[in-house]
Amino acid sequence: MTVGPWKPEGKSNGLSKGLVGLAPLLVLVVVLLAWQGLVWARDIPKFLLPSPRDIMMATWSDGSRLWAATVRTASEAGAGLGLSVAIGFVLASVLGQARWIRLSLMPYVLIFQTVPIIGVAPLLITWFGNTFSTVMLIAAFISIFPIISNTTTGLISVDAAHLDLFRLNRASRWQIYWFLQVPTALPFYAAGIRIAAAASVLGACVGDYFVGTAQQEGLGFLVFQAKDRDAGLMFATLLALTIMGFVYYLLASLFCRTVLLRWENHQLR
Amino acid sequence: MSELSLTPSQSPVILADHVNKRFGQQVVLRNVNLQVGSGEFICLLGASGCGKSTVLRLLAGLEAPDSPTQSSQEAPRLELRSSGTSGESGPRLGYVFQQPNLLPWRTVDENVGLPLRLRGTAGNVRRAEVERALHEVGLTAADGNKWPRMLSGGMQMRASLARALVTRPEIMLLDEPFSALDEVLRQRLGEELRQWHRQFHWTTIFVTHHVSEAVFLADRILMFRSLRDGVEQDSLAADLPIQFREERDAELRESHIYIEEVIRVTKRFRELQQ
Protein backbone atom coordinates (compact mmCIF):
# COMPACT_ATOMS: atom_id res chain seq x y z
CA MET A 1 0.00 0.00 0.00
CA THR A 2 1.33 3.43 -0.87
CA VAL A 3 1.37 6.19 1.68
CA GLY A 4 -0.28 9.38 0.48
CA PRO A 5 -2.28 12.31 1.78
CA TRP A 6 -5.34 11.12 3.60
CA LYS A 7 -8.55 11.71 1.72
CA PRO A 8 -11.87 11.38 3.48
CA GLU A 9 -13.71 10.14 0.39
CA GLY A 10 -11.10 7.38 -0.08
CA LYS A 11 -12.13 5.89 3.26
CA SER A 12 -15.86 5.93 2.84
CA ASN A 13 -15.89 4.87 -0.82
CA GLY A 14 -15.94 1.10 -1.16
CA LEU A 15 -14.68 1.04 -4.76
CA SER A 16 -11.02 1.72 -5.40
CA LYS A 17 -10.13 4.34 -7.98
CA GLY A 18 -9.07 1.81 -10.64
CA LEU A 19 -12.30 -0.08 -10.38
CA VAL A 20 -14.37 3.11 -10.70
CA GLY A 21 -12.59 3.82 -13.99
CA LEU A 22 -13.51 0.38 -15.29
CA ALA A 23 -17.17 0.65 -14.30
CA PRO A 24 -18.46 2.07 -17.64
CA LEU A 25 -16.60 -0.71 -19.50
CA LEU A 26 -18.19 -3.27 -17.22
CA VAL A 27 -21.62 -1.85 -18.02
CA LEU A 28 -20.85 -2.11 -21.75
CA VAL A 29 -19.81 -5.76 -21.48
CA VAL A 30 -22.95 -6.63 -19.51
CA VAL A 31 -25.20 -4.83 -22.01
CA LEU A 32 -23.51 -6.49 -25.01
CA LEU A 33 -23.79 -9.94 -23.45
CA ALA A 34 -27.47 -9.38 -22.62
CA TRP A 35 -28.10 -8.15 -26.17
CA GLN A 36 -26.35 -11.14 -27.71
CA GLY A 37 -28.23 -13.47 -25.35
CA LEU A 38 -31.58 -11.89 -26.19
CA VAL A 39 -31.04 -12.24 -29.96
CA TRP A 40 -29.99 -15.87 -29.56
CA ALA A 41 -32.69 -16.85 -27.10
CA ARG A 42 -35.57 -15.25 -28.98
CA ASP A 43 -34.07 -16.02 -32.39
CA ILE A 44 -34.67 -12.42 -33.56
CA PRO A 45 -34.14 -12.04 -37.33
CA LYS A 46 -31.06 -10.03 -38.30
CA PHE A 47 -32.94 -7.36 -40.27
CA LEU A 48 -34.92 -6.45 -37.14
CA LEU A 49 -32.07 -6.44 -34.66
CA PRO A 50 -28.59 -7.67 -35.55
CA SER A 51 -26.64 -9.12 -32.65
CA PRO A 52 -23.32 -7.60 -31.50
CA ARG A 53 -21.65 -10.51 -33.24
CA ASP A 54 -23.37 -9.61 -36.56
CA ILE A 55 -22.22 -6.02 -36.17
CA MET A 56 -18.65 -7.10 -35.51
CA MET A 57 -18.72 -9.39 -38.53
CA ALA A 58 -20.00 -6.57 -40.75
CA THR A 59 -17.34 -4.22 -39.41
CA TRP A 60 -14.73 -6.84 -40.25
CA SER A 61 -15.92 -7.72 -43.77
CA ASP A 62 -16.80 -4.16 -44.85
CA GLY A 63 -13.94 -2.60 -42.90
CA SER A 64 -12.28 -0.66 -45.70
CA ARG A 65 -15.59 0.71 -47.01
CA LEU A 66 -16.61 1.75 -43.50
CA TRP A 67 -13.24 3.32 -42.86
CA ALA A 68 -13.31 5.34 -46.09
CA ALA A 69 -16.80 6.62 -45.26
CA THR A 70 -15.71 7.49 -41.72
CA VAL A 71 -12.71 9.46 -42.95
CA ARG A 72 -14.90 11.32 -45.42
CA THR A 73 -17.57 12.26 -42.87
CA ALA A 74 -14.96 13.13 -40.27
CA SER A 75 -13.25 15.50 -42.70
CA GLU A 76 -16.57 17.10 -43.68
CA ALA A 77 -17.56 17.59 -40.05
CA GLY A 78 -14.10 18.88 -39.14
CA ALA A 79 -14.01 21.36 -42.00
CA GLY A 80 -17.56 22.50 -41.21
CA LEU A 81 -16.71 22.92 -37.54
CA GLY A 82 -13.57 24.88 -38.40
CA LEU A 83 -15.65 27.15 -40.62
CA SER A 84 -18.29 27.80 -37.97
CA VAL A 85 -15.67 28.31 -35.23
CA ALA A 86 -14.00 30.99 -37.36
CA ILE A 87 -17.02 32.67 -38.95
CA GLY A 88 -19.08 32.37 -35.76
CA PHE A 89 -16.46 34.30 -33.83
CA VAL A 90 -16.30 37.06 -36.44
CA LEU A 91 -20.08 37.39 -36.62
CA ALA A 92 -20.39 37.40 -32.82
CA SER A 93 -17.72 40.09 -32.69
CA VAL A 94 -19.78 42.26 -34.99
CA LEU A 95 -22.93 41.61 -32.94
CA GLY A 96 -21.03 42.29 -29.70
CA GLN A 97 -20.07 45.80 -30.74
CA ALA A 98 -23.29 47.67 -30.11
CA ARG A 99 -26.86 47.21 -29.02
CA TRP A 100 -28.24 48.70 -32.22
CA ILE A 101 -26.28 46.18 -34.29
CA ARG A 102 -27.73 43.34 -32.25
CA LEU A 103 -31.22 44.78 -32.51
CA SER A 104 -31.01 45.09 -36.27
CA LEU A 105 -29.27 41.76 -37.04
CA MET A 106 -30.34 39.32 -34.32
CA PRO A 107 -33.82 38.65 -35.81
CA TYR A 108 -32.19 37.50 -39.03
CA VAL A 109 -29.70 35.33 -37.20
CA LEU A 110 -32.64 33.70 -35.43
CA ILE A 111 -34.62 33.26 -38.65
CA PHE A 112 -31.52 31.82 -40.29
CA GLN A 113 -31.33 29.32 -37.46
CA THR A 114 -34.95 28.24 -37.77
CA VAL A 115 -34.74 27.50 -41.51
CA PRO A 116 -34.82 23.67 -41.61
CA ILE A 117 -31.63 22.16 -42.96
CA ILE A 118 -33.72 19.73 -45.03
CA GLY A 119 -34.89 22.73 -47.03
CA VAL A 120 -31.50 24.33 -47.36
CA ALA A 121 -29.58 21.25 -48.45
CA PRO A 122 -31.11 21.02 -51.97
CA LEU A 123 -30.36 24.71 -52.50
CA LEU A 124 -26.72 24.23 -51.49
CA ILE A 125 -26.50 21.27 -53.88
CA THR A 126 -27.83 23.46 -56.70
CA TRP A 127 -25.13 26.01 -55.95
CA PHE A 128 -22.15 23.81 -55.14
CA GLY A 129 -23.08 20.41 -56.61
CA ASN A 130 -22.66 16.99 -55.03
CA THR A 131 -19.37 17.95 -53.46
CA PHE A 132 -17.38 17.87 -50.26
CA SER A 133 -17.94 21.65 -49.94
CA THR A 134 -21.71 21.24 -49.87
CA VAL A 135 -21.56 18.81 -46.94
CA MET A 136 -19.01 21.02 -45.20
CA LEU A 137 -21.37 24.00 -45.53
CA ILE A 138 -24.30 21.99 -44.15
CA ALA A 139 -22.16 20.95 -41.15
CA ALA A 140 -21.17 24.60 -40.65
CA PHE A 141 -24.78 25.75 -41.04
CA ILE A 142 -25.94 23.46 -38.25
CA SER A 143 -23.05 24.11 -35.88
CA ILE A 144 -22.60 27.87 -36.20
CA PHE A 145 -25.60 29.03 -34.19
CA PRO A 146 -24.51 27.88 -30.71
CA ILE A 147 -21.18 29.59 -31.35
CA ILE A 148 -22.71 32.91 -32.45
CA SER A 149 -25.24 32.88 -29.66
CA ASN A 150 -22.84 31.91 -26.85
CA THR A 151 -20.01 34.15 -27.96
CA THR A 152 -22.26 37.19 -28.38
CA THR A 153 -23.61 36.65 -24.87
CA GLY A 154 -20.02 36.44 -23.61
CA LEU A 155 -18.90 39.58 -25.39
CA ILE A 156 -21.64 41.64 -23.77
CA SER A 157 -21.27 40.04 -20.32
CA VAL A 158 -18.42 42.37 -19.48
CA ASP A 159 -18.18 43.32 -15.80
CA ALA A 160 -19.31 46.95 -15.32
CA ALA A 161 -16.43 47.74 -12.96
CA HIS A 162 -13.92 46.34 -15.47
CA LEU A 163 -15.44 48.55 -18.13
CA ASP A 164 -15.07 51.58 -15.81
CA LEU A 165 -11.40 50.70 -15.41
CA PHE A 166 -10.90 50.72 -19.16
CA ARG A 167 -12.84 53.94 -19.66
CA LEU A 168 -10.81 55.65 -16.94
CA ASN A 169 -7.69 54.78 -18.87
CA ARG A 170 -9.24 56.13 -22.05
CA ALA A 171 -9.10 52.74 -23.75
CA SER A 172 -10.02 52.68 -27.43
CA ARG A 173 -12.90 50.62 -28.73
CA TRP A 174 -10.45 48.13 -30.11
CA GLN A 175 -8.63 47.86 -26.75
CA ILE A 176 -11.90 47.28 -24.93
CA TYR A 177 -12.74 44.57 -27.46
CA TRP A 178 -9.37 42.85 -27.36
CA PHE A 179 -8.32 43.22 -23.72
CA LEU A 180 -11.75 42.97 -22.07
CA GLN A 181 -14.57 41.65 -24.26
CA VAL A 182 -12.69 38.76 -25.87
CA PRO A 183 -11.21 37.41 -22.60
CA THR A 184 -14.63 37.70 -20.95
CA ALA A 185 -16.24 35.85 -23.87
CA LEU A 186 -13.70 33.03 -24.19
CA PRO A 187 -15.36 30.61 -21.72
CA PHE A 188 -18.69 31.23 -23.50
CA TYR A 189 -17.00 30.69 -26.88
CA ALA A 190 -15.55 27.40 -25.61
CA ALA A 191 -18.96 26.21 -24.43
CA GLY A 192 -20.34 27.05 -27.88
CA ILE A 193 -17.55 25.12 -29.61
CA ARG A 194 -18.23 22.03 -27.49
CA ILE A 195 -21.89 22.03 -28.53
CA ALA A 196 -20.97 22.80 -32.14
CA ALA A 197 -18.54 19.87 -32.29
CA ALA A 198 -21.29 17.29 -31.81
CA ALA A 199 -23.67 19.24 -34.06
CA SER A 200 -21.15 19.34 -36.91
CA VAL A 201 -21.10 15.52 -37.03
CA LEU A 202 -24.88 15.53 -37.25
CA GLY A 203 -24.67 18.13 -40.06
CA ALA A 204 -22.11 16.10 -41.99
CA CYS A 205 -24.31 13.01 -41.65
CA VAL A 206 -27.35 14.85 -43.03
CA GLY A 207 -25.18 16.28 -45.81
CA ASP A 208 -23.91 12.81 -46.75
CA TYR A 209 -27.44 11.58 -47.06
CA PHE A 210 -28.29 14.28 -49.62
CA VAL A 211 -25.03 14.45 -51.47
CA GLY A 212 -23.66 10.92 -51.32
CA THR A 213 -23.08 8.73 -54.37
CA ALA A 214 -21.50 5.33 -54.71
CA GLN A 215 -18.25 7.05 -55.63
CA GLN A 216 -18.25 9.35 -52.63
CA GLU A 217 -20.08 7.81 -49.75
CA GLY A 218 -19.92 9.17 -46.23
CA LEU A 219 -21.46 7.53 -43.18
CA GLY A 220 -24.79 9.32 -43.67
CA PHE A 221 -25.07 7.81 -47.15
CA LEU A 222 -23.79 4.40 -46.12
CA VAL A 223 -26.33 4.03 -43.32
CA PHE A 224 -29.20 4.27 -45.84
CA GLN A 225 -27.43 2.07 -48.37
CA ALA A 226 -27.08 -0.62 -45.70
CA LYS A 227 -30.60 -0.27 -44.34
CA ASP A 228 -32.27 -2.89 -46.57
CA ARG A 229 -29.26 -5.03 -47.35
CA ASP A 230 -27.13 -5.46 -44.29
CA ALA A 231 -28.50 -4.54 -40.87
CA GLY A 232 -25.13 -5.42 -39.35
CA LEU A 233 -23.38 -2.83 -41.50
CA MET A 234 -26.08 -0.27 -40.70
CA PHE A 235 -25.49 -0.68 -36.99
CA ALA A 236 -21.73 -0.57 -37.50
CA THR A 237 -22.19 2.71 -39.37
CA LEU A 238 -24.34 4.09 -36.58
CA LEU A 239 -21.67 3.05 -34.11
CA ALA A 240 -19.00 4.84 -36.13
CA LEU A 241 -21.12 8.01 -36.19
CA THR A 242 -21.71 7.86 -32.46
CA ILE A 243 -18.04 7.35 -31.69
CA MET A 244 -17.13 10.20 -34.05
CA GLY A 245 -19.50 12.62 -32.36
CA PHE A 246 -18.12 11.60 -29.00
CA VAL A 247 -14.48 11.94 -30.11
CA TYR A 248 -15.20 15.36 -31.63
CA TYR A 249 -16.76 16.50 -28.42
CA LEU A 250 -13.77 15.23 -26.44
CA LEU A 251 -11.29 16.87 -28.82
CA ALA A 252 -13.15 20.17 -28.63
CA SER A 253 -13.25 19.95 -24.83
CA LEU A 254 -9.53 19.21 -24.71
CA PHE A 255 -8.76 22.08 -27.07
CA CYS A 256 -10.87 24.48 -25.01
CA ARG A 257 -9.29 23.31 -21.77
CA THR A 258 -5.84 24.02 -23.14
CA VAL A 259 -6.76 27.42 -24.53
CA LEU A 260 -8.71 28.40 -21.43
CA LEU A 261 -6.17 27.25 -18.87
CA ARG A 262 -6.15 30.70 -17.25
CA TRP A 263 -9.92 30.74 -17.00
CA GLU A 264 -10.49 27.16 -15.93
CA ASN A 265 -7.84 27.37 -13.26
CA HIS A 266 -8.30 30.83 -12.01
CA GLN A 267 -11.88 31.78 -12.48
CA LEU A 268 -14.00 28.70 -12.83
CA ARG A 269 -11.69 26.63 -10.55
CA MET B 1 -6.23 75.20 7.96
CA SER B 2 -2.47 75.49 8.54
CA GLU B 3 0.07 74.81 5.80
CA LEU B 4 -2.16 72.64 3.64
CA SER B 5 -4.91 75.20 3.19
CA LEU B 6 -5.79 76.96 -0.02
CA THR B 7 -3.92 80.20 -0.39
CA PRO B 8 -5.71 82.78 -2.54
CA SER B 9 -3.02 82.74 -5.22
CA GLN B 10 -3.36 78.98 -5.61
CA SER B 11 -6.18 78.03 -7.94
CA PRO B 12 -8.03 74.82 -7.15
CA VAL B 13 -6.90 71.63 -8.87
CA ILE B 14 -10.32 70.04 -8.60
CA LEU B 15 -13.42 72.13 -9.06
CA ALA B 16 -17.12 71.36 -9.22
CA ASP B 17 -19.81 74.02 -9.65
CA HIS B 18 -23.59 73.72 -9.83
CA VAL B 19 -23.39 69.96 -10.29
CA ASN B 20 -26.69 68.08 -10.26
CA LYS B 21 -27.28 64.44 -10.97
CA ARG B 22 -30.37 62.37 -11.12
CA PHE B 23 -30.87 58.73 -12.10
CA GLY B 24 -34.33 58.53 -13.61
CA GLN B 25 -36.64 60.40 -11.24
CA GLN B 26 -34.29 59.99 -8.28
CA VAL B 27 -32.25 63.11 -7.46
CA VAL B 28 -28.85 61.83 -6.35
CA LEU B 29 -26.89 65.07 -6.10
CA ARG B 30 -28.18 68.60 -5.77
CA ASN B 31 -26.09 71.70 -6.36
CA VAL B 32 -22.65 70.35 -5.48
CA ASN B 33 -19.92 72.99 -5.29
CA LEU B 34 -16.46 72.00 -4.20
CA GLN B 35 -12.89 73.12 -4.60
CA VAL B 36 -9.79 71.12 -3.77
CA GLY B 37 -6.34 72.69 -3.64
CA SER B 38 -3.16 71.09 -4.88
CA GLY B 39 -1.96 68.36 -2.55
CA GLU B 40 -5.02 68.50 -0.33
CA PHE B 41 -6.45 65.30 1.14
CA ILE B 42 -10.26 65.47 1.16
CA CYS B 43 -12.68 62.90 2.51
CA LEU B 44 -16.25 62.76 1.27
CA LEU B 45 -18.23 61.46 4.23
CA GLY B 46 -21.84 60.40 4.05
CA ALA B 47 -24.32 57.63 4.61
CA SER B 48 -24.85 54.96 1.96
CA GLY B 49 -26.79 56.25 -1.02
CA CYS B 50 -26.06 59.94 -0.43
CA GLY B 51 -24.31 60.23 -3.80
CA LYS B 52 -20.74 60.65 -2.56
CA SER B 53 -19.43 57.94 -4.88
CA THR B 54 -21.29 59.60 -7.74
CA VAL B 55 -19.26 62.77 -7.13
CA LEU B 56 -16.13 60.73 -7.70
CA ARG B 57 -17.52 59.13 -10.85
CA LEU B 58 -18.52 62.55 -12.18
CA LEU B 59 -15.05 63.93 -11.52
CA ALA B 60 -13.47 60.93 -13.23
CA GLY B 61 -15.74 61.37 -16.26
CA LEU B 62 -17.51 58.02 -15.76
CA GLU B 63 -20.82 59.91 -15.47
CA ALA B 64 -21.96 63.21 -16.95
CA PRO B 65 -23.64 65.91 -14.82
CA ASP B 66 -27.25 66.84 -15.64
CA SER B 67 -27.78 69.82 -17.91
CA PRO B 68 -29.72 72.70 -16.34
CA THR B 69 -33.48 72.09 -16.44
CA GLN B 70 -34.39 75.78 -16.31
CA SER B 71 -32.71 78.67 -18.08
CA SER B 72 -32.18 80.42 -14.75
CA GLN B 73 -29.89 77.64 -13.58
CA GLU B 74 -26.21 77.92 -14.23
CA ALA B 75 -24.45 75.31 -16.34
CA PRO B 76 -22.47 72.74 -14.39
CA ARG B 77 -18.70 72.90 -14.28
CA LEU B 78 -16.41 70.00 -13.52
CA GLU B 79 -12.71 70.57 -13.85
CA LEU B 80 -9.56 68.67 -13.05
CA ARG B 81 -6.48 70.78 -13.65
CA SER B 82 -2.88 69.87 -13.95
CA SER B 83 -0.77 71.54 -11.27
CA GLY B 84 2.54 70.78 -12.94
CA THR B 85 3.70 70.46 -16.51
CA SER B 86 2.65 66.96 -17.42
CA GLY B 87 2.27 67.90 -21.08
CA GLU B 88 -0.89 65.85 -21.41
CA SER B 89 -4.34 67.23 -22.04
CA GLY B 90 -5.44 66.80 -18.44
CA PRO B 91 -3.88 65.75 -15.17
CA ARG B 92 -2.95 62.11 -14.69
CA LEU B 93 -5.62 60.41 -12.67
CA GLY B 94 -5.43 57.46 -10.30
CA TYR B 95 -8.70 55.76 -9.38
CA VAL B 96 -9.20 53.05 -6.80
CA PHE B 97 -12.45 51.11 -6.79
CA GLN B 98 -14.42 49.71 -3.89
CA GLN B 99 -13.43 46.20 -4.98
CA PRO B 100 -9.90 45.36 -6.15
CA ASN B 101 -11.40 44.96 -9.64
CA LEU B 102 -8.46 42.98 -11.03
CA LEU B 103 -8.82 41.06 -14.29
CA PRO B 104 -8.87 37.39 -13.20
CA TRP B 105 -7.30 36.14 -16.43
CA ARG B 106 -4.22 38.31 -16.05
CA THR B 107 -1.35 38.01 -13.60
CA VAL B 108 -0.87 40.65 -10.92
CA ASP B 109 2.02 42.11 -12.95
CA GLU B 110 -0.16 42.39 -16.05
CA ASN B 111 -3.00 43.92 -14.02
CA VAL B 112 -0.77 46.57 -12.51
CA GLY B 113 0.74 47.35 -15.92
CA LEU B 114 -2.64 47.55 -17.68
CA PRO B 115 -3.00 51.38 -17.56
CA LEU B 116 0.44 51.73 -19.15
CA ARG B 117 -0.32 49.05 -21.71
CA LEU B 118 -3.52 50.86 -22.72
CA ARG B 119 -1.46 54.03 -23.14
CA GLY B 120 1.00 52.21 -25.39
CA THR B 121 3.98 52.50 -23.04
CA ALA B 122 7.00 50.48 -24.21
CA GLY B 123 7.43 47.05 -22.62
CA ASN B 124 10.72 47.70 -20.83
CA VAL B 125 9.49 50.99 -19.33
CA ARG B 126 6.29 49.24 -18.33
CA ARG B 127 8.12 46.44 -16.53
CA ALA B 128 10.25 48.92 -14.61
CA GLU B 129 7.23 51.00 -13.60
CA VAL B 130 5.25 47.90 -12.53
CA GLU B 131 8.20 46.76 -10.41
CA ARG B 132 8.36 50.20 -8.80
CA ALA B 133 4.63 50.32 -8.15
CA LEU B 134 4.57 46.84 -6.60
CA HIS B 135 7.48 47.83 -4.39
CA GLU B 136 5.71 51.02 -3.27
CA VAL B 137 2.64 49.13 -2.08
CA GLY B 138 4.66 46.41 -0.38
CA LEU B 139 4.21 43.54 -2.84
CA THR B 140 7.09 41.34 -3.97
CA ALA B 141 8.15 40.31 -7.47
CA ALA B 142 6.85 36.82 -6.60
CA ASP B 143 3.42 38.30 -5.86
CA GLY B 144 3.54 39.93 -9.28
CA ASN B 145 3.74 36.54 -10.99
CA LYS B 146 0.67 35.22 -9.22
CA TRP B 147 -2.94 35.18 -10.33
CA PRO B 148 -5.14 37.71 -8.50
CA ARG B 149 -7.23 35.03 -6.83
CA MET B 150 -4.11 33.58 -5.19
CA LEU B 151 -3.73 36.81 -3.19
CA SER B 152 -5.59 37.66 0.02
CA GLY B 153 -8.17 40.45 -0.03
CA GLY B 154 -5.69 42.90 1.47
CA MET B 155 -3.00 42.03 -1.05
CA GLN B 156 -5.51 42.31 -3.91
CA MET B 157 -6.30 45.82 -2.70
CA ARG B 158 -2.56 46.59 -2.60
CA ALA B 159 -2.30 45.39 -6.22
CA SER B 160 -5.24 47.63 -7.05
CA LEU B 161 -3.44 50.59 -5.42
CA ALA B 162 -0.29 49.73 -7.37
CA ARG B 163 -2.32 49.86 -10.59
CA ALA B 164 -3.60 53.31 -9.61
CA LEU B 165 -0.16 54.73 -8.89
CA VAL B 166 1.70 53.08 -11.78
CA THR B 167 0.94 56.06 -14.03
CA ARG B 168 2.42 58.50 -11.46
CA PRO B 169 -0.88 60.34 -11.00
CA GLU B 170 -1.30 63.90 -9.77
CA ILE B 171 -4.85 63.34 -8.61
CA MET B 172 -5.96 60.25 -6.70
CA LEU B 173 -9.62 59.35 -6.37
CA LEU B 174 -10.51 56.52 -3.99
CA ASP B 175 -14.04 55.12 -3.71
CA GLU B 176 -14.38 53.38 -0.31
CA PRO B 177 -11.34 51.27 -1.16
CA PHE B 178 -10.86 49.62 2.24
CA SER B 179 -14.48 49.08 3.25
CA ALA B 180 -14.38 45.33 2.55
CA LEU B 181 -11.27 44.79 4.68
CA ASP B 182 -11.05 44.03 8.38
CA GLU B 183 -10.53 46.89 10.84
CA VAL B 184 -6.79 46.30 11.48
CA LEU B 185 -5.98 46.07 7.79
CA ARG B 186 -8.10 49.11 7.05
CA GLN B 187 -6.20 51.13 9.65
CA ARG B 188 -2.81 49.95 8.39
CA LEU B 189 -3.64 50.79 4.76
CA GLY B 190 -4.94 54.18 5.90
CA GLU B 191 -1.64 54.91 7.57
CA GLU B 192 0.27 53.81 4.47
CA LEU B 193 -2.00 55.87 2.27
CA ARG B 194 -1.08 59.02 4.22
CA GLN B 195 2.61 58.08 3.83
CA TRP B 196 2.21 57.77 0.07
CA HIS B 197 0.32 61.05 0.04
CA ARG B 198 3.23 62.74 1.78
CA GLN B 199 5.65 61.10 -0.65
CA PHE B 200 3.80 61.70 -3.93
CA HIS B 201 1.82 64.89 -3.11
CA TRP B 202 -1.36 63.59 -4.70
CA THR B 203 -4.39 65.81 -4.61
CA THR B 204 -6.64 63.23 -3.04
CA ILE B 205 -10.37 62.61 -2.68
CA PHE B 206 -11.28 59.65 -0.51
CA VAL B 207 -14.89 58.51 -0.22
CA THR B 208 -15.92 56.78 2.99
CA HIS B 209 -18.81 56.25 5.38
CA HIS B 210 -16.52 55.65 8.39
CA VAL B 211 -16.19 58.77 10.55
CA SER B 212 -12.99 57.60 12.24
CA GLU B 213 -11.38 56.76 8.91
CA ALA B 214 -12.31 60.18 7.51
CA VAL B 215 -10.98 62.02 10.60
CA PHE B 216 -7.73 60.10 10.48
CA LEU B 217 -7.11 60.63 6.77
CA ALA B 218 -8.55 64.00 5.83
CA ASP B 219 -7.24 67.53 5.87
CA ARG B 220 -10.84 68.47 5.23
CA ILE B 221 -14.07 66.50 5.45
CA LEU B 222 -16.92 67.30 3.10
CA MET B 223 -20.04 65.89 4.67
CA PHE B 224 -22.89 64.80 2.42
CA ARG B 225 -26.51 64.43 3.41
CA SER B 226 -29.00 61.98 1.98
CA LEU B 227 -31.58 63.96 0.01
CA ARG B 228 -35.18 63.60 1.08
CA ASP B 229 -38.18 63.87 -1.20
CA GLY B 230 -39.79 67.28 -1.25
CA VAL B 231 -36.98 68.98 0.71
CA GLU B 232 -34.88 71.41 -1.30
CA GLN B 233 -31.47 70.88 0.25
CA ASP B 234 -27.99 70.86 -1.21
CA SER B 235 -26.15 67.55 -1.08
CA LEU B 236 -23.08 69.06 0.51
CA ALA B 237 -23.93 69.71 4.17
CA ALA B 238 -20.71 70.69 5.91
CA ASP B 239 -17.08 71.54 5.24
CA LEU B 240 -14.97 70.57 8.27
CA PRO B 241 -11.22 71.23 8.41
CA ILE B 242 -9.36 68.56 10.39
CA GLN B 243 -6.06 69.64 11.88
CA PHE B 244 -3.49 67.67 13.78
CA ARG B 245 -0.02 68.84 14.69
CA GLU B 246 1.03 65.20 14.89
CA GLU B 247 1.89 62.91 11.99
CA ARG B 248 -0.96 60.77 10.66
CA ASP B 249 0.35 57.47 11.95
CA ALA B 250 -0.72 54.65 14.26
CA GLU B 251 0.19 56.73 17.33
CA LEU B 252 -2.28 59.43 16.40
CA ARG B 253 -5.15 56.97 16.70
CA GLU B 254 -4.49 56.64 20.43
CA SER B 255 -4.23 60.37 21.12
CA HIS B 256 -6.97 62.32 22.92
CA ILE B 257 -7.11 64.99 20.28
CA TYR B 258 -7.90 62.43 17.60
CA ILE B 259 -10.57 60.72 19.68
CA GLU B 260 -12.15 64.07 20.55
CA GLU B 261 -12.17 64.99 16.87
CA VAL B 262 -13.88 61.70 16.00
CA ILE B 263 -16.53 62.44 18.65
CA ARG B 264 -17.05 65.98 17.34
CA VAL B 265 -17.43 64.87 13.71
CA THR B 266 -19.64 61.94 14.69
CA LYS B 267 -21.97 64.39 16.47
CA ARG B 268 -22.27 66.49 13.35
CA PHE B 269 -22.81 63.38 11.29
CA ARG B 270 -25.62 62.22 13.59
CA GLU B 271 -27.30 65.60 13.49
CA LEU B 272 -27.42 65.35 9.73
CA GLN B 273 -29.06 61.94 9.78
CA GLN B 274 -32.02 63.25 11.79
Can you walk through the features of this model?
The complex is a heterodimer of chains A (269) and B (274). Helices cover 81% and strands 0% of the residues of chain A. By secondary structure, chain A is an all-alpha fold. The longest helix of chain A has 39 residues. Chain B is built from eight helices and nine strands. In chain B, helix 2 runs parallel beside helix 5, helix 3 packs across helix 5 and helix 7 packs across helix 8. Chain B is globular and about 55 Å long. The two termini of chain B are 29 Å apart. The relative contact order of chain B is 0.17. The N terminus of chain B is likely disordered. Chains A and B meet through helix 8, helix 9 and helix 12 of A and helix 2 of B.
Write the layout of secondary structure elements.
The complex is a heterodimer of chains A (269) and B (274).
Chain A: H1 8-12, H2 17-42, H3 52-61, H4 63-95, H5 99-114, H6 117-128, H7 132-155, H8 160-168, H9 173-211, H10 219-227, H11 231-259, H12 261-266
Helix pairs in contact in A: 3-11, 4-7, 4-9, 4-11, 6-7, 6-9, 7-9, 9-10, 9-11, 10-11
Chain B: E1 14-23, E2 26-36, E3 41-45, H1 52-60, E4 77-80, E5 93-96, H2 108-118, H3 123-136, H4 141-144, H5 153-165, E6 171-175, H6 183-200, E7 203-208, H7 211-217, E8 220-224, E9 236-241, H8 256-273
Parallel strand pairs in B: 3-7, 3-8, 5-6, 6-7
Antiparallel strand pairs in B: 1-2, 1-4, 8-9
Helix pairs in contact in B: 2-3, 2-5, 3-5, 7-8
Mean of all residue-level pLDDT scores of chain B: 88
**Please, how many helices of chain A?**
12
Tell me, briefly, the overall form of chain A.
globular
What's the number of helices of chain B? 8
Structural class of chain B: alpha/beta
Report the count of strand segments of chain B. 9
Main beta-sheet strand count, sense and barrel state of chain B: 6 strands, mixed
State which percent range the strand residues of chain B make up: 15-25%
**H/E element string of chain B?**
EEEHEEHHHHEHEHEEH
Tally the beta strands of chain A: 0
End-to-end separation of chain A: 31 Å
User: What value does the Rg of chain B take, in angstroms?
Assistant: 19 Å
Strand line-up in the sheet with most strands of chain B: 5-6-7-3-8-9
Order of SSEs of chain A: HHHHHHHHHHHH
Which two chains share the most extensive interface?
Answer: A-B, 20 and 19 residues
